[in-house]
């Protein structure tokens, strides 16, 4: 984009969920109602218990985000076919220089308690999310706004770069030009909050109040969260279904058994054991879909543990993993081997960024490994309530063979415990990691994960050189002009290897025979506006 005056007024529409750089894949099917379904228009959707309360600025893991996306709508959303950003709550977003933006809200948007969505709703939410003492995980997504550092340090209680003009207009001043800023605005950290949140956060956590297509109904910890369609929703698209039950499973295999038996309406991941030999294609005949999405699977190192401080160790383990063997063994070959940190469908991708470090080179791997003096067995960990053991066992088999050292899977019981170890920097083993895009940009695969202190930087990685490259790329006058700097940062990160990219994601989803018009984005989000129930 040029730096001349332009309007980023992306036409008003509705919808949430789909962030992709390619078209959605849509399949229709129908049939008999799911067994024991007493509420025919409530769609049951698998998930896990959210890590945090459903505050948009604290939702950074996938299962929380998909619930928050049902409850809230932001300034911007993403087209379900083209993935182009377009306005939702915003009527227009205008800038002359990619640094100062004037946002005008569309009229008629309300929260589920009936109060109006105003400029104050966004400004207050963004200030609260970024205020350091509040310790919300999504804070760094707002780091481009002027005054972020003072707010994050607790020296200020509001952004100096936010100014309310009237009920429907506010101005955003960034610390430097950032042409991707409007594209970011569909992510959860930028969603609005009602005044009731600030009056009583505990009450909000118990019963969240959003402005999205579905309103909160109930939460049974460890079991489910239920939402119902919000009849006064301000968007132009309206859900067909009456509601969603986000049903929590301790094991993905249990969710798969339920969808096969038509006792679960939608499963976003078919577990690895059902992929073997294409078993799921028979068990879910006519009600399954295999598709790519904007995600990368990796394993990461806790760099705060001195045992993993040597980059040669990290490089050695990467070259000790036979990615093709792991994918063939665990996923029936249905993944795309990673050649960097960024999938090929993301704007700004360059092929071969990882080079030989992402190739299976057992001799070189052992040579490097032995030079590090690493002691003890190698352990890989993940939460045990998801289907990751098959591929982690396969990865360990190749690591052990290449390096001549025991490698074993050491699981953590639940996702919540797993995330707590990462967030508290108490992880002591190599851990499962990965990323699904918030929006289609190379920037989104680097800044949130590898910048010092970033929102989901679970490794503790910090590189002044990388930070400088990312900052320079962010400040480029147009997104395309920043690509070369993001690409340089990607190469440096891969040399440091805080995380080992394994494969770019391809996923298999399934649904019950009462579910039809299934549309799934490359963000791995079910389009809750399109899906219907028989």
TrEMBL record:
CDD domains: PBP2_NikA_DppA_OppA_like. Pfam families: SBP_bac_5. It comes from Nocardia bhagyanarayanae. Residues 85-454 form the Solute-binding protein family domain. GO terms for molecular function: peptide transmembrane transporter activity. GO terms for cellular component: ATP-binding cassette (ABC) transporter complex; periplasmic space. One of its GO terms (biological process) is peptide transport. Gene3D superfamilies: Dipeptide-binding Protein, Domain 1, Dipeptide-binding Protein, Domain 3, Periplasmic binding protein-like II. The keyword Cell cycle does not apply. Residues 1-22 form the signal peptide. Keywords: Signal. Residues 35-59 are annotated as: Disordered. This is Oligopeptide transport system substrate-binding protein.
